[in-house]
Structure formats: C-alpha cells, structure tokens
Amino acid sequence: MCGPNKFLGRALVKSLKFSFLLVLGVMLAIQELKSSLPNYAGSNMIVLTDGEETVEPRLTGLNFSELAGITVHTIAFGQRADSILEDLAIRTGGRTFQHRDESTNLFSIFTRLAVQDDSGTVEILSENFNLTNSTRRFFMDPNSGDQISILITFPQYHLSKSDVQVMKPNGDVINSTATLPDVYRSVLAFDLIEIDSEVVVGEWQIRVSYFDTIPPMFMGTMHVVTKRLPGIQKLPIQIDATWALSSVGKIEIQTLYVAVSQGYTPIINADVRVTVMVPNGPHVPLEVWDDGVGPDVRSGDGVYSGFFTQFKGIGRYSVKVTVLGVSKVTKVLLGAFVGQGLAAADPELIQESSITEMDSGLFERSIEGNSFKCTDELACSGKDDIFAPYRVTDLRGYTIKENATAVLTFTAPGDDVFEGTASYYELHIARNITRLLRQFNETEVLQYIPFEDITNETMPPYVISGNLSAPLPARSRETFYIQLPEEEGKFSYIFSIVAVDDVGQRSLPSNFATVSTAYIKVKAAGSFPLSIIGAIVMLLVLLLLLSLLALLIWKRTRSKGDDKESNHSNRDNVRNSTPPKVCQVDVRNHKIDDVVHRNIDDYARSADTQINQSNYPMFRFGIITEQTQHADKIYSDQSVMHNHAYVTDPHQKFARDL
C-alpha cells in the first residue's frame, strides 16, 4: 500500500521476482511510488516477508535517503523473518507487526494502517471462532461509525457446509436472502462471507451454523469494522497499542502503551484487556494501568501502560488488545488531551481549561498491536530472575506535629519490576540532600521497633508502624510512620527507599521525600511531655472531686447527729421536770371534778403552760405538760381509747387510767 487508499499492484507483482532479495523489492516500490505519485511525501509502504536475507545486496546497504518522506511498515510472517524488518520500520517512523498462522491479525494490521491514514475505519472486533454453532455478540455504540462491514472466513472447503446469519438490534436478520440496503456476499473461491449494512446502535449477533457431522479441525475468523460517511464529523472511539522497544536485548524492560480516545479526547476507566503472544508456550495476559505509577507517566490521560517481563524465549512477541466501555464507569474526559505515555498538551493549558467527565456508554474495540523481537538468550529465557524491583517514584511525606511523627506513603513495587512482591525495604534518612546523592549507601537505615520494645533509652528516629521486612504486593499502597527526634531548631529530614527482591537485586533509590521540623512543636528542654502533664492535671481534678464528695457526706452525717442530740436533750429536760398532773374527764356527762380542774389550772399557771381548750370538744381530752405542743400532738392520737381520754406521759410511752 503506497499513499492514502492507493494500491500499487504492479509494484507488488514485480517484487515477487526478487522475493529472495528484499532490498530489490523495496527499491522497486520506491521507484513505482515516485513515478505514480509526484507528491509522494507522507506515503506509506508495507513490506512483507517470511524469510531472511542470505545474499548480497542486503537492506543494511540501502540508501535511506531514498525513503525520505515515506513511512515503511513491516510484517513478519513467522519467527524466521529477517530481524532487519524492525530496523527498517524504526528508521522510517513505521511499525513492525507479526503475522501468526493461527491468528486473525493480518486483517487487523491492514485495518489499523487504514485507520492511521485517517480513512475513517474503526475496528470493532477481530477474533477466531469455532465453526460448531458459534454465536458472537457485540455492541455498536453511537460513535462507532455509519457503515458496518462483517467479514467471516472459513477453513478451505468448509464454506459450503456453513450458514451465517446476522441479527440487528431492531430484530432484522441479514442472511443469504438479504436485500438492499443490506448486502450479503459469499465468495466460495476464498471461503469467505462479507456482509455490509447500516450501523444500528445496540447489541448485534453473528450466528454461524455448521451442517457436517464431523467438526472441522480448524477455526474460522471473524472481523467487524465500521466506516464514517464523508462529511460527517462525529468522531469514533479508537484504540492504539504500541511497544516502547522494537527489540529487547540484555536486561531491558519492555513497556506497552494502549491509548483509548475519541479524537484527541482521552477515555478513562475503560476495561482494557491485553494478551501477549509469545514464541513458545501459551499466550500471556498483561495488566495495564492509567494511574500515573510505574510505566504510566500521567494519570487519567487515556494511555494505559504496563511492563512486560514474562519472556518465553528468543523470537517475536505480538499483542492483541480489546477495550470495553463500562456504562456509568468509563468516562470521556472532555477538555483534556490524550498522550502517548504523557499528556500531549501543555500542563498549564490543561489546568486553565474546564475538564468535564461524560459517560462513554457501552462500546467494544479490538486491535492488533505492533510486535518486537527479543534477542538476548539470558533475558529472553524467562528462567532466571534478572529483573530487580522497580524504582519507587511516588514517595510522599508529611508530619504529625502533636507527637513528632513523619508519615511516608508510596506505591509498592514488585519482585520483578511491577510483578510479584519484593522481599524487604531499606528506608534511608539524612538531613543533607547532598549526602543522599553522593553517599547514599552510607546514610542511616531506619529500623522498625515494636511498641513494647520502646524504652526511655530508645533514641529516634525509628519506624513505629509499617513492616519493612514484609512488603505488600505490587501496586498496593504502603504507609510507614517514623518517630523523629524532638530537638530544638528547624531543619529537614530527607527520606529515600530501596526495594530488594529474593535474590538480593536492589531497585534504584526512590525519589526524595522531605519532612520539615518546622511543622513539629518541639518541647522545651527539661520540661515534661504534654502527655504526662495532662495526666497529672486529670489526677488533681479527680482528687478535688473526691474531697468535695467526702465533705458533703460528712456535713449530712453531722446534721443528723445534731438532730438526735437535740431530741435526747429535750427528752432529758422532760424527765427532769415536775411530772404533770392528770385528770379524768367524763366525756359522757361532761362533768369535771372541780377539785381536779382547779389543780390543773394551778399547775398550768405555775408551769407557765397553756391548755388548748379547743381540743376538748374535738379530741375529748387535753394534754397538760411543760413540753412543747408538738410532743402533746404526737401522743394525743394514740390516747383516744374507748370513752375515756388519758393524759399520757410521752417519755414512758404508756397510758394509765386515772
């Protein structure tokens, strides 16, 4: 393919004559391109081969100035294709792909290159399927395009034994009897079926039925792409996948970047699924993240990144990526810009712009990423532990002024870069950044001291929370608390951490985190800690409350004692006084003996007492005594018996008939 949407068939045919001389085929394509397109700058060339150069001339002797303005993409068929393909693509700004015999990626590769030419083509899915009654569901979103094309290929001679039906979201069925605007084409010579239709938003279904009793040994392939109509400006959601290195040598870390965007607008929180095809053994899954940690430079920029370390031998490695939009989770970040590992826009401009999250809705995209070649036997074997833990890049620190404590947080690396779990950490501390830079290994390494082992002789700094000898799994959030010295003066403590794996491989020192004592309230020399002073104050308050309670109880007890003593005194006075005279009153006849009555009057006058005359008709008796009327009333109620009234002695508490 040379130039946007232009095929130079003559160049491809002629190049077949020189299939054993790859360089001659490239030179012939350049000549044909320049003669056919006067303005050939910006054109693309695709070079395919399945072998190695064995004779002169070779591509290494190619005059690359002849390729100025031409981008060369290469496709290697199998593992034996010449490694010069990666170099050719790199030097011209192109990409390298690998085609596997059992894969569907050749179709995906050409679709991807068409997307790169801005032809409006979007790949929805590309995968293998089993011919025995297979059903594949996929979702078409409003931004997927306007026209849909479905291409289904079958193993040789199996198309005639198969039937394909496509069901739209509105219930319409496309099959061999379809009429316009739907198109159903069966090409027996190539064992393929092509279906074209208009895009309808919703869930589509592809149903493949096989009629032979003996199931085929091979699988079919299924491809779905869409196109935009000319003049329609609605941008589709697209994905791109790129390896950072086209070739991996001795102890090099490979990184995959997956960009998900709608135009230049990033899409975040998508479900990104990555599968790496290795030279030997089963496919390997790879996790990618858009969190700004490790290989991911900037969080939320629509680029999902991941390290790859699961090498399985020398050869080419390719990748397949599928991205799913999750309703109410996946967002289109309006006002932001997508970047390949970092934001493409100036950060200051991004801060000034208004960023709004919009629900992306359901969508599905699939793509075949470029390939790379692993060339070093030791690095590619995957048998030896050759990768150290990744360098921590997000170490952060702050202080808790109340107890002179520093808090450090960071994302845990793994045993192999960002996979697995490291064996332990070394936490370095210094007051001088120059010492960390020049004499890092000589700086103080903090130790963890359990709370029960801390004494007055334990001198800070030391770790009081967080286990340095038991790191958390990769990508977990680590937090450590460090007790700092409580000293006079204002200065800074600088921290850096190193992760070590099970074979002793060390990560590079992390970024530096600075904690300033300006935020710590330092205690005065010779004074007690605030905690001790607070305890003493609380104890004094408690003692004061107890004293007040005891005083109140004592006063109440004394008051009751005084009342009892007063009562005893009154009773003694009554006992010591002249016994009262008593008289008998005949209540029935109301006759009072004059002599007795007179004696009573005389006693009352002599004792300076008063007789309550009003009591006579009510209680039918009266009490004559030297004591208070209160005592008289107490015993008056007890003295009403029968028809007689008694004057009783309150001190003896008994009544006597007169």
From TrEMBL:
Residues 560-581 are annotated as: Disordered. The chain crosses the membrane at residues 530-554. Residues 560-574 have a biased composition (Basic and acidic residues). It comes from the Eukaryota. The keyword Transmembrane helix applies. Keywords: Membrane, Transmembrane, Transmembrane helix. NCBIfam families: choice_anch_X (NF041940). This is Putative epithelial chloride channel protein. The lineage of its organism: Eukaryota, Metazoa, Echinodermata, Eleutherozoa, Echinozoa.
